Amino acid sequence: MRIFFSLVVVGAVWVVASNLSHAEPIPQTLKKPVTDEYQSVKVEDNYQWLEQDDDPAVKAWSDAQSRRTREYLDKLPDRAAIEKQLTDWYAKTSPSYSGIVSRPGILLARKFQPPKQQQMLVTLASADDPKSEKTAIDWFVPSHDGKYVAMSISQGGSEDGTLHIYETATGKPLKDSITHVQYPTAGGSAAWNADGTGIYYTRFPRKGERPDADLNFYQQVYFHKIGTADSEDTYSIGKDFPRIAEIKLEASHEGKYILATVANGDGGDFAHYLLGPDGNWKQLTQFSDQIKGTRIGRDNALYLLSRADAPRGKILRAPLDKPELENATVIVPPGGAVIQFMEPTGDALYVGDLLGGPSQIRRFGLDGQGETIVPIPNISAVTEMESLEDNSLLFRDVSYSEPAAWFHLTGNAPLKKPALVDSSPVSFADIEVSREMATSKDGTKIPLNIIRRKGTKLDGNNPVLLYGYGGYGISMQPNFDFTRRLWFDRGGVLIIANIRGGGEFGEEWHKAGNLIKKQNVFDDFAAAAQYLINEKWTRAEKLAILGGSNGGLLMGAMITQHPDLVRAVVSTVGIYDMLRVELAPNGAFNVTEFGTVKDPEQFKALYAYSPYHHVADGANYPSILFMTGANDGRVAPYHSRKMVARLDEANKSSNPILLRTSTSSGHGIGTALSERIKQLADEYSFLFAQLGMARH
What's the CA gap between 340 and 395, in Å, rounded? Predict the structure, then answer.
């Protein structure tokens, strides 16, 4: 499963006493040298022993680091006030609705309404009437008639999901319960049959079916008949899929067809299989065919998003009775925009495009004719589209200065904004956004989204927070976070960089930043930082950087390659030892993105930038806050432990290097609101101390 970390930039800017720049003495870390050999290269590792989560010595070391970090952060005079401010603001926010799915007579959606700690699943009569919500029941897939809903539920941020079935109208659970349908390695999915008597679901091996090391691999599809024990479930497909297969299931509108999209790990290659009314699965595409997305239309047709000879995408259409790729025809040819996704209704095809970060929507006839542009807010992102039973479209749009809102589109009629609109407890009327271009080491132009108060001066004195990700073809698009208000009010500037490795400019942009070309990602981000300094947005002493997961790897590369370019770093759930990452269950899924030490050329690239292996003795490193979750199934927490141990040993500066381990969270998915607020308060009280930011 992709190691993705959602960008949340929040916090307040407070006065911090200068005598708090030093942390408590560094806990001593025992060295236990181990030598591994890769491609005839011997690599010594003094801290490999920190990889053992259950070792009492590792727990004691981690606890000592946590106490030291807690003591440092809790001494910051406004740490408690920051947390209180965040809690108060969240309590004043409106409900937020996402993941809408249409069924006859109802909409189902995820609802998040602080101070509740997690999202709930609710039903609505329509997008115009949130008060029609009837059932709060907490991945979800409703049956085609809307009578039942299947949900995967996991605990403590573990993402180890159990499938439960509920009556939609009452929220009453059925006795059906199926364990281990979802895990961070390959995720999970389900799709109902036509009459709602059973459900196809993703299943991981049970203990005894495969060696213990393979229990979170080899995902397959099984069928469960409602009201029966899961021991009676029947195998459907998947025995011939790769060890690192990730399966997503989708049913046609009436349930006669089931589509299985099979990812070959996290590298962005997919194969597709179709289960027809005859009960047989048929392979439609192979990994090499470059089909990146598929949807079953209501017109007995299959729509396919292809990047074959079209890095920015084209759309094909094939009849469901002859769905093989050779029978597909191009209905939307490639163009300047990057096609992200598509949503067919009964009479139109809506296409969501990416324009280097911001979005656009185009509407076509089902034959690809009659193209029109749907008007949406400027520099905004369309994050979801859902076709309704009447063939109209709901889509969710968000910008840097406006909260997310759902819009309703019927044919060529004017756009309507229904009642499902997020609100903010603070105004962003004085916030402006511009896009500027930095030039990377090889001459590539890198877009920077610069968000700040109107009238901000370019005098080199602005505190700047630069964020980046750069991987898996994931695009950094406009998003809204009301808690940034505190950052802006105290002179802070937020920069979001569209670096290579993402998908902002299509598959070529992604491929230019993965495998042996990963160094381009780090060069792009360093060029962004240097541009901000050169253009007087800030200076090195006022520049902080933030990244998580794959973006944590980016932070590690910046720390080791450009330690003098920034003042402070917050790196969350990151990867730092690139030679051993593939040994973890989810690490095997990431080989298609990062590469493997088993390949000579890929090993050379991995070893050349692996942050853990490039910490230099006697270097002056910036202030760093590492954050990880004890339950993280996507990036092993030991990466943060080993990186901190090595930096503690090598660092010559007096800047604090801290490790915060949350015992109640994982990679960030499913983290309770209260813990998220505490994490964010820690992040920003740390940054404010390092940048010397005071109230204006």
Answer: 14
Strand partners of residue 386: 394
Other residues' Cβ atoms within 10 Å of the Cβ of residue 438: 23
Give the distance between the most distant pair of CA atoms in the chain.
74
Three-state SS for 16?
coil
In sequence order, what DSSP letters do the residues of 81-108 get, joined into one string? HHHHHHHHHHHTPPPEEEEEEEETTEEE
- The CA-CA-CA angle for residues 442, 443, 449, to 5°, reads 115
Angle between helices 56-74 and 638-650 (to 10 degrees): 70
* Dihedral sign (CA 399, 364, 411, 395): negative
Whole-angstrom Cα distance, residue 563 to residue 556?
10
Question: CA–CA separation, 559 vs 577, rounded Å?
Answer: 14
Q: Rounded to an integer, what distance in angstroms lies between the CA atom of residue 562 and that of residue 529? A: 10
Whether residue 485 contacts residue 426, with contact meaning beta carbons closer than 8 Å, is answered with yes
Element (DSSP H or E) covering residue 258: strand 258-264
**pTM: predicted TM-score of the whole model, two decimal places:** 0.82
- Among 286, 294, 293, 313, residue whose Cα is nearest residue 508: 313
Check residues 94 and 554 and name the one with the higher pLDDT: 554
Give tens-digit pLDDT for 488-525. 988 899 999 999 999 999 999 999 999 999 999 999 99
- 511: Cα within 13 Å, side-chain hemisphere: 8
3-state secondary structure of 515: helix
Percent of the chain with pLDDT over 70: 91
Structure tokens at 485: 């208000």
Contacts of residue 410, defined as CB under 8 A and 6 or more positions apart, other chains included, come to 390, 392, 393, 416
Residue 8: pLDDT above 60? no
Please give the angle made by the CA atoms of 438, 439 and 441, to the nearest 5 degrees. 135
88 CB neighbour count, 10 Å cutoff: 10
C-alpha 67, offset from chain centre = 29
* Strands laid side by side in the 148-153 sheet: 140-142, 148-153, 161-167, 173-182
Phi, psi of 489, deg, nearest 5: -65, -20
* Angle at the Cα of 341 from the Cα atoms of 309 and 554, rounded to 5 degrees: 80
The stretch 317-338 carries a mean pLDDT of 96
| 512 contact partners, CB below 8 Å, separation of at least 6 | 444, 500, 501, 520
**Nearest CA among 553, 530, 372, 398 for reference residue 466:** 530
Residues 6+ apart with CB under 8 A from 14: 76, 77, 78, 81, 82, 685, 688, 693, 694, 695
For 540, the 3-state DSSP assignment is helix
Structure confidence by residue, pLDDT tens digits, 401-459: 999 999 999 988 888 988 888 889 889 999 999 999 999 999 999 999 999 999 999 99
Alpha-carbon distance 246 to 270, whole Å? 9
> Which tokens in the block code for residue 555?
């932070």
8 Å CB contact between 354 and 504 = yes
